[in-house]
Fold this sequence. Notes:
Shape of chain B: globular
CATH class of the largest domain in chain A: Alpha Beta
Low-confidence stretches of chain A: 14-18
Mean pLDDT of chain B: 84
Number of strands of chain A: 12
Mean pLDDT of chain A: 87
Structural class of chain B: mainly alpha
Radius of gyration of chain B: 27 Å
Oligomer: heterodimer
Largest sheet of chain B: 2 strands, antiparallel
Order of helices and strands of chain A: HEHEHEHEEHHEHHEHEHEEHEHEH
CATH architecture of the largest domain in chain B: Orthogonal Bundle
Helix content of chain B: over 70%
Radius of gyration of chain A: 22 Å
Distance between the termini of chain A: 46 Å
Amino acid sequence: MKLKVIAAAVLALVTAGANAQNINGAGATFPYPIYSKWFSEYSALHPEVKINYQSIGSGGGIRQVSEGTVDFGASDSPMTNDQLSAAKVKVMHIPTVLGAVVPVYNIPGINKDLNFSGDVIADIYLGKITKWNDSRIAKDNPGANLPDKAILPVYRSDGSGTTFIFTDYLSKVSSGWNSGPGKGASIKWPTGIGQKGNEGVAGMVRQSPFSFGYVELIYAETNKMSFGAVRNASGKFLKASTGGVTAAAAGAAKTMPADYRVSITNAPGADAYPISSFTWLLIPTHSTDANKAKALADFLGWMLDHGEGEAAALTYAPLPKQVQDMVRKSIANVK
Amino acid sequence: MSSTRMTPERESSSPLPVPSPLPQPPVASAADATPASVGAALSPIRDFLSKRGSGSFADNSFAAVMLLCACSIFAIVLFIFVILVVHSRLSLIQFGWKFFTRQAWDPVSGDFGALPFIYGTLATSLLALCMAVPLALGVAIFLTELCPRVLRAPISFLTELLAAIPSVVYGLWAVFVLVPLMRDLIGPFLYKILGWTGFFEGTNFGVGLLTASMILAIMILPIISSLTRDIMNAVPNSQREAVLALGATRWEMIRIGVLRNSRIGIVGAIMLGLGRALGETMAVTMVIGNHPDISKSLFAPGYTLASVIANEFSEATGDLYLSALIEIGLALFLVTIVVNAIARLMVWAVTRNAPARVN
């Protein structure tokens, strides 16, 4: 009896596998937890579609979708114009969720959350602010008893979307940063030490007194790390939250370009958290396989209807209403 | 020379598989007995050899197959080299040979050079050797020459266990144990004692070239020591006895009788350790600080060739950037070959025509 059930189950799996539409994607690691949840839920609802996603990094995602070796890619930073024109297929950006980057630090004896202005963060990494009791840090934190100790800046040594968002923000708020290191998934850091991954930076900051670093908001929240507030474009010090990130995206929705390639760091709005960004799926607009394109478009519709509602549970910030409406129209172009 | 002397000793101590016919010399028995009875009395090996006819075809084809195996090594090395060159041609054209002597590494503006990484790789590996070789030799000498029988098995087992630990575990241990130790204890101590040399200057955050070298030293220690132990064990006891019989002390016996006889093997063991140190990625990345700088101070953060590939390859987007990263791989390949060649040359220069002597 039991054997029969197993045999039936195996048969069902085999036949399902034979008929299933396999869609392969690759790219960013940051949205991997929510993507894998979405893909498995969607496959449970639509057994005929199987979406495989490999989190090989944004750079790899862009490369593979440009070469046409995967059915879709994913990236934490939008493709540049050069990359788009060099790609073998025409690629469309579809924003899915939002992420944010928060400053973390370790100063023994200071328990309250510190405030940071963007230009102060830039100058810490530029090596211009070297001590914790620097007057510019003190100005943002009246009453805090800042020590006369050297700051150890910690950065991500591996190429990452987190670094891209962070340096994109620094380029906007500091002219010295914009003309110096610039923005990118890996950059030339003027000073400090590099650690691999969010966990590497967080571990280093946690165990090194007087260090300063930056990690992904989700990483800080799931690990219950305390982090600092950052001054936004309206001059208000704001601690990152999924609400603040969605607010930043809503502020940017009015000026959203049709291809969604937009940076929302330092976005306007009193409640907008300044170091936040979309993460994108990279979808070829003209697929060689019409069935695959149809399945992918159907998935994107499902993502807007049901997927976005699940984002907050995994501490991702969902797309604001306005952007969801825009994306719904764009999906029609996936053929 | 020692091998020819060993041959009779080994034959007398280890009898052939069939013990009974041995007391009489085989040649004599073959002459006395009739051919039919010889087959029954001879060892199975002889039996096989006398029946199998000419072996020249088997010998020749065996030699050819082995030659093919040996050539496959050349083919593999050549293949890797060619692929590395082909895929790094963009950056080879852009920067030429200067790539290996440039200090820049700026993915944003597309300016690349390998020098800080080559420096970091060589500095950490050589420092690690300086720390690991004396320790490994000490362990090996103790195990083969001085160790009480009870301790031998546990110590050997532990050294081999060290070799089996994955490098990411070493890295984690280094981050949580070695880095704080370095920051609070070892670093300040070194600064106090050796600060005047200039090698221990600047702020010590616990991560940097020295910490990376220390974790590398711990990782290559078991390789060098267990190989050296095996090599020293292979030195025939007659060598030791001969030196002792001439009136040497125990240390003199170890130096003249054991170390001198096994020096080439020991150098080989060190080379294997160096190979691992040059290519080690994970553990080093976790504690070296990943900042491409060339600094005299060992407290300063550095970067190695293997680390930068591991860190940046997955997110590298531009063609030139990717090509530069592959050229870093080419640099690592060349560094490994050059370092090995230099070491071989040194061994050759030291050991050629060198007779056994006291010092």
